[in-house]
Design goal:
Blueprint (H helix, E strand, L loop, with lengths): L3 H6 L2 H8 L8 H7 L7 H13 L3 H9 L7 H5 L4 H9 L7 H18 L12 H11 L4 H24 L13 E2 L2 E2 L5
Antiparallel strand pairs: 1-2
Helix pairs in contact: 2-3, 3-4, 4-10, 8-9
């Protein structure tokens, strides 16, 4: 687990090695977030990474989307996925699909890429096979603009999960005991 002092002391290369994998094959986003050092908190780091994503140009966002592997697709078959993607897809059971499921998913991947010009992206760690299949089928009815927004939102969620794994906790989670406070007053007391 990386602490804030260690993160803030990193040079560009070390920071990109540590946080580049937060975004699939796109370390340039970590390099842009590095420029916002020093980070006052883990949340500040997360916001810097998210800000780099949101401030990317349309072409850069499209390149980021196309850096993602298909779900149980050709990259998985070729053993060409990042360690992070392998773990994520395995957690959703996409590495152990029945033959008919694999054929259906490959058809959905093909239809999605053909319709939108980039692979379907879903934060699979938060889903199981039925939800993944249903989501893909539903998203095929969307417009390209809707899917660009959906895909970037999914990339943001994937990056949040990856960052949480690197840091050992969710940077946006309230501090211990914070849930018991309401505007500085303990809950259950009248003002």
């Amino acid at each position: 687990m990386l602490d804030l002092a260690t993160i803030n002391a990193m040079d560009t290369a070390a920071f990109c090695r540590a946080f580049g994998p937060v975004f699939e094959r796109s370390p340039w986003l970590a390099e842009r977030a590095f420029a916002r050092r020093p980070f006052a908190s883990r949340l500040d780091l997360q916001l810097a990474l998210y800000g780099a994503l949101q401030s990317a140009t349309g072409d850069e966002k499209l390149a980021l989307l196309n850096a993602h592997p298909e779900l149980a697709g050709r990259e998985a078959a070729a053993g060409a996925m990042t360690a992070e993607s392998v773990a994520e897809q395995s957690s959703a059971g996409l590495n152990a699909l029945a033959r008919d499921e694999l054929e259906r998913l490959r058809e959905l991947n093909r239809a999605y890429r053909e319709r939108f010009g980039f692979p379907a992206i879903i934060a699979v760690r938060l889903n199981r096979k039925p939800a993944i299949f249903g989501t893909l089928e539903a998203r095929l009815r969307n417009t390209r603009e809707q899917e660009l927004q959906n895909a970037i939102a999914q990339v943001a969620e994937i990056s949040r999960l990856r960052l949480t794994e690197l840091l050992g906790s969710d940077p946006a989670a309230p501090a211990p005991g914070a849930a018991a406070l309401d505007h500085g007053r303990p809950r259950g007391r009248s003002a």
